[in-house]
Write a structure and sequence with these properties.
alpha+beta, three-stranded antiparallel β-sheet, two-stranded antiparallel ribbon, 5 helices, 9 strands, 22% helix, 19% strand
Length: 206
């Protein structure tokens, strides 16, 4: 059963033991908030981001808790080589190879970083950057400083935006309360993310 973003982060627990092979991310532009994915998630890591406008609410996946089981993407019990029973009726879920498990030699973000530091957590930046690209929003728990530190890198105004060397911040903090911090992509940041992830690998299980 689906829960609101407020209820989710008020009761959220850190219970994943290790990085998983796959990660799922929901595209809000295709999501209708039908709850199909949230209903079958075995670890309850999917929550609803409510909108006051009819038809604009959508679901998000907490990728730091996702175990890559594929249940929100397809039903293994009803699938075989000839037929795949997909869960989401709107094809709103992207399944990705977790960049933290088998990282590329050079991160897609690396050529765009113009800061003096060179030891950024590139794979985690890819993980949250992809979610930021799809939804323009990433929500993290207040107590997880290791996760908020990832988005803090994206909030630094040192990402290359234009050929003449102009740099921007990809994201900024939108809201903060006792349980969660919301990061949003700027208009320029969204354009840059679309460029960075152009041609990035999405896994089509069907």
């Amino acid at each position: 059963m689906t829960v609101s973003v407020e209820e989710y982060f008020a009761t959220r627990k850190d219970d994943r033991k290790k990085e998983t092979r796959y990660l799922n991310v929901i595209n809000k532009d295709s999501c209708t908030s039908c709850q199909s994915c949230a209903t079958v998630c075995p670890v309850d890591c999917i929550y609803e981001v409510h909108s006051p406008f009819p038809g604009e609410s959508y679901h998000q996946i907490d990728t730091s808790r996702c175990i890559g089981c594929q249940m929100c993407y397809r039903s293994p019990q009803d699938s075989n080589d000839h037929f795949t029973m997909t869960i989401c009726p709107w094809n709103a879920i992207d399944m990705l190879h977790n960049p933290n498990v088998k990282p590329e030699e050079t991160s897609v973000f690396m050529p765009y970083w113009k800061g003096s530091e060179d030891d950024l957590p590139w794979q985690k930046i890819e993980e949250y950057g992809y979610q930021l690209r799809l939804d323009g929003l990433v929500i993290l728990p207040v107590g997880r400083e290791d996760l908020t530190a990832i988005l803090d890198w994206l909030c630094k105004p040192e990402w290359l935006f234009s050929e003449d060397g102009e740099t921007i911040a990809i994201a900024t903090v939108s809201t903060t309360d006792d349980e969660k911090i919301s990061y949003v992509a700027s208009e320029e940041g969204q354009d840059l993310l679309d460029c960075i992830f152009d041609g990035w690998h999405r896994i089509f299980m069907d």
